[in-house]
Amino acid sequence: MRALREASGLTGDAVARRASMSAGKLSKIENGRTLPTVQDVDLILSALGVSDAVKEQFLTTARAEVTEATAWRLLRRMGPWKHQNTIKAIEAIEANTAALRLFQGQLIPGLLQTPEYATAVFSLPPALPDETRARTVAARMERQATLYEDGRSFYFVICEHVLRWLICEPVVMAVQLDRLVSLSRLPNVTVGVVPLAGRMPDFPMTCFSVHDDRLVIVETFHSEITTRDPRDIQTYVDTFERFADVALFGDDMRALVESIRDEFLPQQERT
């Protein structure tokens, strides 16, 4: 875009004014220090007066940069355990996230799973081969070390039906819920549960995680979608807050989780 502006003969200040943005922001975009939104690109190209064909070419690239979708079948092909390690390492994910907000209406979040529950997850169709499953579960357990690192904060909101969804033996589910209660006591971990009783603010259409208000990862049945578009991020932040507003936290949350746990235990083991 910098080359286009220079070819147009317009100064940065002139283009910035026409695009309704500061000259500083335009300079950062041109020098690659700020990732522009699709709207930013549209405004700049309109200010430059480029043809519709050129504009569409740049807009297509911008959309690809801020939103990425990776099919689960491709992740499985590369080896799911490698994907777990990639999640830990790449900039946008846990390794460089100070504040993580995660909403789950499908299963216990990976960072809170026990090995047994995770094994059950990866045994669901299409089930992984035994060796692959073991390596994937091990990688997921390693990722959980981030919960104990200084300077990190974690906010989980989970729907109550997730705690009742039996994908494993009842005793495994009971142990998983004990783990959830235990981790909720960590000073940097906040766990909320949206109770089935009460008015719901929305539908739990997908699970998603918000990373420092700069990136969102959404999981669907067929793919993992990553977006950096500020408007999309705000949509998910607002959705997270709506569910958090009706969730139970602290002792109320733990009392609910423990009551569900007790339902999974044999009568003689209930306390």
Describe this structure in words.
- By secondary structure, the chain is α/β, with parallel strands linked by helices.
- Helix content is 50%, strand content 14%.
- The protein has a seven-stranded mixed β-sheet.
- It is elongated, with a radius of gyration of 22 Å.
- The model is unreliable at 85-92 (pLDDT under 50).
- Report strand %: 5-15%
Low-pLDDT windows of residues: 85-92
What best-fitting shape do the alpha-carbon axes yield?
A: elongated
Mean pLDDT: 85
Q: Given the structure, what is the number of helices?
A: 13
Task: Give the terminus-to-terminus CA distance.
Answer: 66 Å
Topology:
Blueprint: H1 2-8, H2 12-18, H3 23-30, H4 38-48, H5 52-66, E1 67-71, H6 72-78, H7 80-89, E2 99-104, H8 115-121, H9 130-143, E3 153-159, H10 160-164, H11 170-183, E4 189-194, E5 207-211, E6 215-219, E7 223-227, H12 230-245, H13 250-264
Key features?
13 helices; seven-stranded mixed sheet; 271 residues; 7 strands; alpha/beta; single chain
Summarize the structure.
This protein is 50% helix and 14% strand. The protein has helices spanning 2-8, 12-18, 23-30, 38-48, 52-66, 72-78, 80-89, 115-121, 130-143, 160-164, 170-183, 230-245, 250-264; strands at residues 67-71, 99-104, 153-159, 189-194, 207-211, 215-219, 223-227.
